[in-house]
Amino acid sequence: MVQSFRLENLGLINRDKKLSFRFNGKAYYGYEGDTLASALLANGIHLIGRSFKYHRPRGFFGAGVDEPYAIVQLYRNGETEPNVKATEQELFEGLEAKSVNCWPSVNFDIGAINNFLKIFLPAGFYYKTFMWPKSFWYKVYEPFIRKAAGLGVASIKHDKERYEHKYEYCDLLIAGSGPSGLASAYAAAKNGARVILAEDKARFGGTLLTSEVNIGNKSGREWADGIISELKEMPNVVVKNRSQVFGYYDHNMLVMSERISDHLPKTKKFHPKQKLWYIRAKEVLISSGSIERPLVFGNNDTPGVMLSSAAKEYLKVYGVLVGRKPLVFTNNDSGYETAIEFKKNGIDPIILDTRKDPHSEIVDEAKNLGIKIKFSYVVVAAQGYKKVKSADIAKISDDKEQLGKIENIKCDCICVSGFWTPTIHLASQSGNKTKFNENIDAFVPGISKQKETTLGAANGTYTLDETLKSSFETAHKLSKQITNNDNKISFPNVVEKKSTIHDKFWCVPLPKGKNYKRFLDFQNDVAVSDIEIALREGYRSIEHVKRYTTLGMATDQGKTSNLNGLQLVSKIENKVVPAVGHTTFRPPYTPVSIGAIVGREVGKHSKPTRKSPMHSWHVKNNAVFVDAGVWLRPRYYKLGDENLFEGSKREAKNVRTNVGVCDVTTLGKIDIKGPDAAELLNRVYSNAWLKLPVGKARYGVMLREDGIVMDDGTTTRISENHYHMTTTTAQAANVLSHLEYYLQLVWPELNVNVVSTTEQWAGAAIAGPKSRNLLQKLFPNSDVSNEGLPFMGFTEGDLFGVKARIFRISFSGELAYEVNVESDNGNFMWEKIMEIGEEFKIQPYGTEALSTLRIEMGHVAGSELDGRTIPYDNSLEGLLSKKKDFIGKRSLSREAFIAEDRQKLVGVVPLDKKTSIPEGSHLVKDSNAPLPNPKLGYISASCWSVEHDNPFSLAIIKDGKNMIGKKLFVMSPLKNKVIPVEIVSSHYVDPKGERVRS
Amino acid sequence: MLYIKCPHCGWRSQNEFSYGGDASVIRPELNKKVSDQDWDNFVYNRKSLRGKHWELWQHLSGCRQWIKVERDTATHEIFNTLKANEDIS
Asked: For the complex shown, is ipTM > 0.90?
């Protein structure tokens, strides 16, 4: 297919490299350096999608980030991506894209019936309709709205692309590589500052790519190219294209999204698709330029109506004609520049200027070129459905209220220019309170809030000479402050055409008897009439008007519509624009893919995985793992076809009858040293610690200041001033911070040091009636008899040449020991235990058996110490010292905590001794009571008691101490279960605790 | 993301720190009688100021020191940082 709208020898595309692509299933080709938009326009394609609400045909309106219409579904390398702007997507070989928001096709779209129903779809129609009957919501309205809403379809597949994050620091971050960006980057870099220059587009230069100016005897574009190549060579400069600085956050941190591979058919191996940069800049220069403002007239959304600057860009950068019979409709000189470019390329444009008698170099040039200009003329309405065919035009009175006789002239595109709106988003995001500049009818940044300066067109400076001067000066000044260098570069000679003032007129009145839609927000189909309705209905705040009409919402965030919306409100309300104010600019400036925000932290990378030194042994021995915090722990070791229930039962039973070994490396360990270590323990634990002898361990409970149990564990006195504290796996980090808090801030007089040693020690719990026999063989030189190493005793031993710590502590309730060796020796220890334990029928056991053993013993763990229970609730009140003060003690006398019927830990057994009780179930008195059935308590943990061979659970229940022996019901609406149960003691096995002392 | 000057390590990004609440709260001394009201004030009652606020942060992924930070709760501006043993002026 011939690219019939492509000019020869114009533009910056690479004509040696043809690229083929498909749009809506049809094959086309373009060139390397095209965007999807320019390639489609080169092929004469203007109809690209359907509008959001009325499904009106839509084409291209801009040529970049401001584009409200040209949103496509992109297909690339087996993946699909919604919300891609055709004006930003660079062309690659094999690109495939489809229109969105249309069915069955963009040419024949059934939803377009909305266009004829539009009187029924006014502003706020979502709020007004779909309200009744209520039952219609789920069946009719919601599915309808869901189908109608949104532009494009997100992929449901896992994104196989890689996204990366990068943290960077610099002296100056410069956002935008137009004239002000280039000048300031150059001046700052030459003055020794570390500079990052970011450009959203593929090409550097901004407006210099399209404007007819000279800088230092070069064309603007040549000057830009020269500066960029020089900057790229400098070691103190990072120059990034395809990089959008989209967010300005606190303390001068900005976030930039770099599209590394989106312009390629496929991401290169080991390359990311996109990279998110977190940049902490000492100073930020915002050189984000300005966006042309539309003029508002009837049917101004028809394909073929576009910004005049976009038409110029398609022509000069891509060599593409957006039409052969262009009409330029302008209220300022910028439209003339576009017309002049058309004329120079053999096309005869007509200019309609709303101004009566403008005089400037640019206007004169257009006159001299013989361009037909109609002054005091406006476009009343565009005519044509899927493409502009003609325009109704009319003379407008001097007061801009009266239209003259309407004439119709043929044209195939209407290039509009309503002057320029500075892109102040980044400045505003930084906290800068913007101010209204009457000369340009737009908001510009006010006083800097953070370390940011806005330059050039973004600051409302529209002449090149002034822009370059202020950029050179500002960058020099700021870089001098940072680097103390004083290298000034000479200011180049600038040649540009002078322009004259613009016309403040921007909205064409409706001719009598006509009801044309005059769109303000093109992406959301918000027309002048919608704003009028909103104001008529009493909405006053611009924020409310925005939310009621959706003006300025959606993916383009009103880049082309905001200011016209404000001007309209100001006109109707008879207020000046600054009194109306503008809506808040929030990041991101442009849509950012979720993948880029998440970065590498997906799946297994979302948090680190910690493995014990014995991990490879567990893997080899069929361990089934479970996530325990960030740790991977064996849940059970699968024998044959065993499931979790069977495997854990076997393992737990073996502990009760023979001996088992469990990897307890994950337990938090804190080394505590110093003369005041005992005093610290005495304050953080609820029980007494001052008299613990060397070589002894003690179980302790620590509270938060509000009396809630924080953690439990054993702490052992290794030597006079040296303690070894253990915490639960989950609370290890919090307990360390807790101790540091009290030592550093509350009791700095205590001479104690604490440090985490969790990773320094590998731990194995050896539990079961035969554990002492095994220990004797493991440590033949140590006395591990009941007298030599009594319950809660500690000794150091020699494990075949490896130094070991032996603690006689028990979580399972059996005779048990915990052996610690330095982590590097963990695997050696484990293998020795397994090897020597064979004659005692040792089996490893995982966390499931560990839970079973502790539950039937009535030992509390994380599911009881859940941040809501006090010591009494867990039957730990015996560990509360009456003689001394400790953290949280004062809270325990609160009224609720000492209530007679306070909740307490109990055991629960199903009456049938068969039905397992789901964890989290509620306990009630009467299973048939009307809802809400009063809840007495809840099941905190459940197991299959291997001792009694029936289900057993722990529960925390109101007035628990008086509930033993009562018959209640367990209810689990989630599992749809009602189980009659009996409340028993939480100590279901060995209630006197004889085994651990045996 | 805030940029916090740790008095021990220098400028670091917020993601190295964890927040620790109002720095002006003083724990009642141990073994002293404390009224219900005073204890409630210590454990629960906070002013939730808008404006300058001395607060605690711990340089968790750094030197692990608790520090005092004077921050504007509305604008996030940080005016001063102190070591744990330095008094709020």
From this structure: yes
